Amino acid sequence: MSFSLAIVGRPNVGKSTLFNRLVGRRLALVDDQPGVTRDLREGEARLGDLRFTVVDTAGLENETDESLPARMRRLTERAVDEADICLFLIDARAGILPDDEVFAEILRKRAKHVILAANKAEGSAADAGVIEAYSLGLDEPIRLSAEHGEGMNELYAALLPLSEGFAERAAAEAPEVEVTLSEEEAEAGEGDMRLPTRDKPLQIAVVGRPNAGKSTLVNAILGEERLLTGPEAGITRDAISVQMDWGGVPMRIFDTAGMRRRAKVQDKLEKLSVSDGIRAVKFAEVVVVLLDAAIPFETQDLKIADLAEREGRAVVVAVNKWDVENEKQDKLKWLREQFEHVLPQLRGAPLVTISARTGKGLDRLQAAIMQAYDVWNRRVPTAQLNRWLEGMVSRHPPPAPQGRRIKLRYMTQAKTRPPGFVVMCSHPDKLPESYSRYLVNGLREDFDMPGTPIRLTMRGQGDRNPYKGRKKKNAGALKKHLGKLQSKKD
């Protein structure tokens, strides 16, 4: 990305609609009610041949106390300070309001470059507001309609001369998952495991119920108040990503909206927020399921962890607010027992106790994330797998449905991220699920793959004999040849 563009303005002027238009996807939540966006959201924008980072911000509120709107305003001011260009959006149909004049003055003092745009400018009803925008003293306003895509050429013309002065920035890309191994890599059990780099950082999603402390945890990892926090449940609405080096490892961390049970999700915005969090899980490599130490392992926590497992992501369970827990040893023992009982599909996944408020336990969390990432990339040589399979079958042979014995002939690792194995066998459709679980649990224990999702596929080779039919054909040819020799002899 060549530069960063922060979209700023009063609430409900169309900032998120324009953000979605520029990134070409519906990433930011959009609704008719004001104040939907609360955090800073970054995306990769495309406009003609320009590629840049666009930042959607909370609506600028004229508040300076410790209220939620005031904290939102401070985050937006930080975005103004950090952005290369600020796109100041006004509502052409509403005209210039006193708050617009206040924020224009703020941008003149704090922003490096300011572009003024009058949104909702389709039709003659917006003409008066567009003309009025000249009074802000920020040069000629661009006439836009983010909803209908009008004015994009004019925005491109305004950005083009500014873009030439900025250095290139790395574009964040979706993680590699379900990586197929070549025959050589499968045989050797090794290959080029992708290590996190600045271009492709390790993707982490922090998920959990509302008010579990997700944004506080991300702020503690960053060492600054980057994300909006507070005692109110459900402050975060979008899945917000921030990039950093943690322990020398480049990472991109997604803070997601709290996920509640579907029956309790009535508000339209919260429905969009939950789907946004689910999308963050799909784009992550490691998912940190954050629990509240006071009320861990509720039904929704289990569903979130199960979602991460079904998506094939490495999972780390972090128990937050540990600093206020009194009986720590007894509670920790109980947590581990409960974890094994309620999440058997993630048996052995790292479980760490932390306090996002004080920062205690973050080093253990970082080590657990790296351990889970390493296991998620684990590769096992084919020869070692087949020796292991032979031992597993001899200890506990597969059943013989209707008297037909199932033969497990051969095993190899086909994929990583997460580890995926293929077993060639006879009658794969008759092998019970319990025997597959027996093999998966053995893989976890014997090859040190705790907690990570493991994909095991049974594939039938059939009883086809490549020489079947050739015997009869060859016999006929031999008989014919012998007949010719006999006639020559006669």
From TrEMBL:
It holds the Pfam family KH_dom-like. GTP 1 binds at residues 9-16, 56-60, 119-122. GO terms for biological process: ribosome biogenesis. Keywords: GTP-binding, Nucleotide-binding, Repeat, Ribosome biogenesis. Residues 467-483 have a biased composition (Basic residues). Signal peptide: none annotated. The keyword Nucleotide-binding applies. Belongs to the TRAFAC class TrmE-Era-EngA-EngB-Septin-like GTPase superfamily. EngA (Der) GTPase family. GTPase that plays an essential role in the late steps of ribosome biogenesis. This is GTPase Der. It comes from Mameliella alba.
